[in-house]
What we know:
The structure holds two protein chains of two kinds. Chain A has one domain. In chain A, 76% of the residues lie in helices and 0% in strands. Chain A has helices at residues 3-12, 16-42, 49-71, 73-94, 102-120, 124-146, 152-175, 188-214, 229-250, 255-283, 298-302, 305-319. In chain B, 39% of the residues lie in helices and 14% in strands. In chain B, strands 1-7-6-2-5-3-4 form a seven-stranded mixed β-sheet, with helices on both faces. The N and C termini of chain B lie far apart (43 Å). By secondary structure, chain B is an alpha/beta fold. Chain B has one domain: Glycerol-3-phosphate (1)-acyltransferase (3-Layer(aba) Sandwich), CATH 3.40.1130. The mean pLDDT of chain B is 86. The interface between A and B is medium-sized, with 23 and 19 residues.
Amino acid sequence: MAILPTLRAFLAAQPPALLAGLAGVVILLGVAGLVATVLTALRPDKSYLELRQRIASWWVMVALLAGALLAGWQATVVVFALISFMALREFLSLAPIRREDRPAILAAYLVLVAAYGFIAADRYMFYLVFIPVWAFLGLPFLMAMLGQTRGFLTTAATFHWGLVTCVYNLGFAAFLMRAPDAERLPAGAAGLVFFLLLVTEFNDVAQYVFGKLFGRRKIAPTVSPNKTWEGFLGGWLATGLLIWFLGPVFTPLAGLGLAVVAVTLPVAGFAGDVTMSAVKRDIGVKDTSHAIPGHGGVLDRADSLTFTAPLYFHLLALFALSKF
Amino acid sequence: MRWLRFLLLILVARPLALFMTGADVTGRERLPLKGPAIVAANHSSHVDTLLLLAIFPSRALARVRPAAAADYFLKDPVIGWFSRHAIGIVPVARLKAGQRPSGVDEDVLAPARAALAAGDIVVVFPEGTRGDGANDKAGDGMGQLKSGVARLAEAFPDAPVIPVWIQGAGRVLPKGETIPVPLNCAVLVGEPLAWSGERPAFMAKLRAALLALKEQAPPLRWS
């Protein structure tokens, strides 16, 4: 089998907008890498190791996600299931958990498998209620049968918080892949997911950059001392404009729907970041793990996504997608 | 046989350790790549051995030999064969106090000495058994350390002793449990210790090094 024609046919079958978007990300990362190299050469006294680690990790994440998006919904569901698994494992490892809860931890992973099973089976209604209703009731019941009542309510809440953020909310990103072609999507279902990831991560970076450049007034001093009003507002504006101008390229959104996403999504990203910071501060760690060099843990990278994914999904469902 | 072990470690042990524990290693560059060297870690679970075998770079793997209790791992012929050839254990005869005839004392470490003499990296668990808090007399999360590691260091004064703290393996698979549960484990590799010329002082130094690594580990909220 000739590799080149197969590859050409594979790429020709992809929506051109998606390929252009991915190419744009690759160029952006290339520029970032170039800047880091130049900085390292110009200022040998300063260490840019973390910056270079960060960019190297971005390459890995982009390659993994781009590969999955191009390969189709099956691969994307598997990749998001793995992301959810790593995030949930980080969460349960740091949260206060009782010795007796080991079977409940195992059950939480089974809930993850079932939830992603519903995505794979394209059972939207099952997915919608499974974690918020049935896992919400079932896990505490299992914990009650395990017989330990010390710290029961706290532990039940901990499990549920972890499952909803790490599995249920992130799963919505994967569920977008099940949007049918009949929805007239300008860059396919993968374009929807790509755009969510692009604007969420762009928002993270933009808030960071605006904060570094102009940040003076702290916005959440007890939770996240590095976050400032200037960073938040700058990121909001920049991401809002990006969504407004690029949204029609990758999504069926237009007019009011697009405006609502442009205004709310950057706020949701900020909210996810700050809320997860509060959790980390409560637990007493800075990073949830060292799984992604330069970034911290999976949950450190995906914290804003746990808020933006369900918001984006529901706004798409409300304004544009008739299936959901 | 060596190839089978290598493939088993690369294709089974590593993905399994990554799946079950996340293998969050700090200071991987301090792991020895050639022997003779001694790695001394705390011990709370069988996962410790799996994790340590999984984090060594491939080129060092053939040299890594975990010391393991002969009475536990070699009593069953099938597990014994697997332990010797797949895991590559160095058997250590654990003799209970009173069972130890005079003169046998030095022999229990003979396989470990032979491995070090052959240039292997011997992984030892100085607590002597998986700790579950029962042996934790000092109340610092670590059992009393047996001095066998000091005797090995004395016999090979040029071999570095690398302290390693493994946080959280006891939750993945506690002593007495059979079903492992995936939870993150942190592995903290410390600076190598050199033989100081005296056993009690060396053991105190090793204990202090392990506890210092434990201080840097993420908190274990496990009650």
